[in-house]
Design brief:
Length: 317
């Protein structure tokens, strides 16, 4: 059972540059000095520099051609200023505005040009959960880039209602046809009292849902995240699969679930695999509780639509 290595076998490794000044064992924020004498001699290195402002602008206009030009320029001006600064607080904010995140904001702006850029930036940086110093730094950068969050006077009096008429769901100003599922029993149905705040969140979710994005709801305990999700899927008439993560979740349990039938343990597909197969919505509860290796697997699935299951099967986009 000895297998010789094929002559055309190669390893292509990707990594972020090591942090100057971090010791090899330092685990502060995971910044180890991984590039040691052992690794140096094994690879040939190529560095990829960050995109220049003009290149990034070209990329954004290529992938989101309908984005308002002024909005895209303001966004890039802000991101560029955050990336160039020496202030570590501002630099940590710049990582939230990666090229992928900018593309996402621009795709949404090209569909809904009336939306405020400041609101989109605050959402991308999760400003509501930032420490006060970082939040002040973000507000200062927004002001310097002349991005103002102008409150819409009609916003206060706007009627946030959801209506289903002739197979079309309308939440606030956004409409979509209702889905007709094969499995009606998997569509959630919960007791829900409409209120403007939850309606605003659902309208926001529907905009991103229609753009084909995966959604993450972040909020303190007890603010009604599960209720909003269930109500949202009920209105859309979408079947859902439910998966709750915890600190003992493994990659194995993510893709296979054991069940006892007639006294025999059988392994069947987990809700994740079923959702992928049938096109259902996968609701992952407590997503922040899982170990890092499980989160990395989910990241690959969300990012590239690929995942290798524990039994050797493979999900591809």
């Amino acid at each position: 059972s000895i297998f010789p290595i094929h002559p055309s076998f190669r390893v292509l490794a990707l990594a972020e540059p090591p942090v100057v000044g971090a010791s090899s064992s330092s685990s502060n924020r995971g910044q180890q000095q991984w590039l040691g004498p052992e690794l140096l001699t094994m690879f040939l290195y190529h560095t990829v520099t960050p995109l220049a402002k003009a290149e990034e602008m070209g990329l954004i206009h290529g992938l989101a051609p309908n984005v308002p030009k002024e909005a895209a320029e303001q966004l890039l001006r802000l991101t560029d200023s955050l990336r160039r600064t020496k202030d570590p607080t501002a630099q940590s904010l710049a990582s939230s505005l990666s090229t992928r995140q900018l593309l996402r904001i621009c795709r949404r702006l090209s569909q809904y040009p009336e939306e405020s850029i400041a609101h989109a930036v605050n959402k991308a940086c999760l400003s509501r959960f930032l420490p006060s110093l970082a939040r002040a730094s973000l507000e200062k950068s927004l002001t310097n880039s002349s991005i103002q969050d102008t409150p819409d006077p009609a916003e206060q009096t706007r009627d946030y209602t959801c209506v289903v008429q002739e197979g079309v769901l309308t939440i606030g100003k956004v409409s979509t046809p209702i889905y007709s599922p094969n499995q009606k029993m998997k569509v959630p149905d919960v007791l829900f009292y409409d209120n403007p705040q939850h309606m605003m969140v659902m309208e926001d979710m529907l905009k991103d849902f229609l753009l084909g994005e995966h959604l993450l709801l972040v909020g303190n305990q007890g603010v009604g995240k599960n209720k909003i999700v269930d109500r949202f899927l009920h209105l859309l008439n979408r079947p859902r699969e439910y998966l709750q993560l915890h600190r003992d979740t493994t990659v194995q349990t993510l893709t296979l679930q054991p069940s006892v039938r007639d006294g025999i343990i059988t392994y069947e597909d987990s809700p994740l695999v079923k959702a992928v197969k049938h096109g259902h919505i996968l609701v992952i509860d407590e997503a922040d509780k899982a170990p890092t290796n499980v989160t990395c697997i989910l990241k690959a699935l969300v990012e590239s639509g690929e995942m290798i299951l524990a039994d050797g099967r493979r999900i591809i986009s």
